[in-house]
Amino acid sequence: MANVQRAVEGLSAAGCTDVLTSSSPDPLAVPPAIFESAVACAQCNSISHYGGIVACLERERDVTGVYVPVSSYVGPPQCVHLASVKGMSTTHRPSFREDMRIEVDVVSNSGHRWIKVKATTARNLELEAAALDVNGATPFTDMLLALIECSKRTCLPHRRTPQVAVVLLHPPPLVLRKFFAEHNVFWAPLSEDCGVATPHHRMQAQLPHAAVTQSATTWFPPLTLSPAVICLDTTALVTLCSQSCYVDGLPYSVRMERLAPFRVLQEQQRKEVDECSAVVAALEPALRLHTAWYTSEALEQVMRQALLLQGDDAAAETTPSSAVKLHGQVFPTGLILPIKLDWLAPLEVAARERSCDATDGSTHQCITTTAATTTATPAVVPLDESSLLVECSDLIGRDAASVLSSLQRRPNWIMADVTYEEFKWILETIAGPQEVARAARLLRLVSVVDTTFLRDSMRSRGDCEGSNGAPSTTGRGTAASRSSSPPPPLFTFVEYLRLSGKVSLRNKFVFGLADAVNAIMVTSNEQMIHAAREQGVHIEACFHPCRSLTEQKMYGLQRRHGPESPPAVTL
């Protein structure tokens, strides 16, 4: 019972699941997930192994699992280069079999670190090292190699793979240390008189007896994983503009009555008032947390650096200079597209005129907007907007008045070119005047990014499913699309996704862009994220409640003439 309670406390402190919610004095009155993991720890055959598990729970952050079978991580197979301890080729090459059962003792850092606990005596470690030196392999090292191979099949966000680490009761002998360094396995002893060895990415074969350097720390360093960019999809853009999220003098009861024929929209309005304010409580905090300010040139450079990630397989198989050249062949001249928003001013005027001509114009008269393109009109109700968008617009306005255009900064907010086209279609057809005005401010804050490099990459891999073989409609091309060059390097694991009812080609471009440029995806499309995870691909995302454009329906405005659907997305 004491072991169970200690494991419960360790899991709770590590943040493995929700905190305790029961006020019962019973020490076992805990959430089931914590209790089940704690029992699994307490039932460990070795008390030393159990102690190592609990030590990991106490020291690691963002623990997501204990005793996790790695067979559940089903990413696409990737090439794994193995070498012997002594740096020479060897015929012993164990491979990960689908039926091989391997458990990761602790998964931490939100899935980015896999830890195995080796609970054995110092004498047994010496015997393990001797067997490794003579035979070139042991069951323990075979298991680690299989675990490494499986980790390289795991598709974490931004082309990352899990870091494999080993916790030992005692410092390992030199032969084991060299094995860990050769295969980039981190290790840490539980004894306090020793530091943590960090792996050498390039072990010098001509110096087989070189000492393995140790750091001054006594545990694994935390993995710093922070997105550099924020990518907004159509759901986020629409929610930031939706009339359901703002006040305009129309009573709540009247809104609900007019939205009654549209049950989904009515339910969204109810949730906005009764449960969660999508903009104030969800979107604005997420944007404030991850927003950084760059010049356009600096933002472009940040995204290019993410695309040229040195750790990817394509770069590893070539020299650095040729890898950069290979990547550069598929890049457009500029990732950030120059977008003209001159279509917004006529749209705002037309939206206001239709609003004034509506049958209930006495209630919903010409609304004064704060967008730069609008003209002054008599104000009945001031435009309610996102305070964050107003703050960002003011900062850009002050920058424009004081610095050169090349030095003007923008928030690190981006959208895919296909998202821009879809959002433009939405505004031109079903947006009300206030929603158009909010969109005018929003579009001046978000940079539009060319996804041609993703389109070319998918096309080169024969990913034509769902495209009906139609040519690209963007009119933009790169060297890769005009030549018979080899397939471009992989930019994102999202390219692996199979098309389905929840994974569309549009989604692959939008979510693939975010993953490729180290951006966090701000979206309400949880189905896409879950569908990708079912295929073994993990995407970094921040969710918000879904809200639709409702102003036309609230005020009985007619839908504007336009295409019945947004522009098609093809390869």
From TrEMBL:
Compositionally biased tracts (Low complexity): 472-484
Domain of life per record: Eukaryota
Pfam families: DUF1308
Annotated spans, Disordered: 460-486
Domain DUF1308: 496-553
UniProt cross-references to InterPro entries, sorted A to Z: DUF1308 (IPR010733)
Protein name, entry field: DUF1308 domain-containing protein
Species: Leishmania guyanensis
Gene name, Swiss-Prot/TrEMBL: LgM4147LRVhigh.25.01220.00360
